[in-house]
Design brief:
The protein is of the alpha/beta class. About 55% of the residues lie in helices and about 15% in strands. The chain has a five-stranded parallel β-sheet with strand order 2-3-1-4-5, with helices on both faces. It has helices at about 20-35, 50-60, 65-90, 100-110, 115-125, 140-150, 160-175, 190-205, and strands at about 5-15, 40-45, 95-100, 130-140, 180-185. Bound molecules: thymidine-5'-diphosphate.
């Protein structure tokens, strides 16, 4: 994905199921706010009213063709970028987003097998080329993540091989885009994960440690 916009206050968190993103994001937001930043915490799918409808279809619905699933994630994303992320960045806020374009590359292409070139093109179309400046990959073995995961939604119920492909796919992406990705070992205890994530963000934002 070359030629994209790259936002210096836009941070995404990525990782397999059970990596701990949803507990980490609020902790990071509180920490950044206490340092005087304005922060927007958000997620995909489902951060907007439209997105919550899409999320319901995606996670609780029955069988969905892989292409249909792709377009639902992209529909959520394009609306989210236009109505939440871009306005927040324009206001000078830091945006912390739980999942973004890399989830689509890994879940819909690497794990589901859709054409990666097409997915890059569609991601670019849906986002207008907006890429995060920093992506924290919470890396852990699929088995460990699944053992922690309790939701059991439509994607959680995929077989272990699917989740292994997700975990491996993320590592490949992190190697391909080393200037944007930072890997955090998510098999550590939550405090160690929080502390490692803070270090990466501090460096990225040029904050004092
Ligand atoms: P969610 O409950 O938010 O999962 P998590 O807590 O693991 O982030 O559900 C989102 C699910 O949707 C998750 O299984 C990953 C998947 N997903 C995709 O397959 N493609 C995408 O583009 C996005 C954003 C999420």
């Amino acid at each position: 994905m070359s030629g994209h916009l790259n936002a210096h206050r836009f941070i995404t968190l990525e990782g397999p199921e059970g990596a701990g993103k949803s507990t980490l994001v609020p902790k990071l937001a509180t920490w950044l706010e206490s340092a005087g930043h304005h922060v927007v915490q958000t997620r995909e799918p489902g951060a907007t009213a439209l997105g919550r409808e899409v999320r319901r279809l995606l996670l609780n619905g029955g069988d969905i063709a892989a292409e249909t699933e792709l377009f639902l994630f992209l529909a959520d994303r394009s609306h989210h970028v236009k109505t939440v992320i871009l306005p927040a960045l324009a206001d000078g806020k830091i945006v912390l987003c739980d999942r973004y374009v890399d989830s689509t590359v890994v879940y819909q292409s690497v794990a589901r097998g859709l054409d990666p070139v097409e997915i890059d093109r569609l991601n670019q179309f849906a986002t207008g080329g907006l890429l995060p400046g920093l992506t924290l990959l919470l890396d852990l073995k699929a088995e460990i993540g699944l053992a922690r995961e309790t939701k059991g939604d439509r994607l959680d119920r995929e077989p272990l091989d699917f989740h292994r492909a997700v975990a491996a796919g993320y590592r490949v992406l992190a190697e391909r885009f080393p200037s944007r990705f930072e890997i955090v070992d998510a098999e550590q205890d939550p405090n160690a994960v929080f502390s490692a994530a803070k270090d990466k963000i501090t460096t990225f934002l040029g904050l004092r440690a």
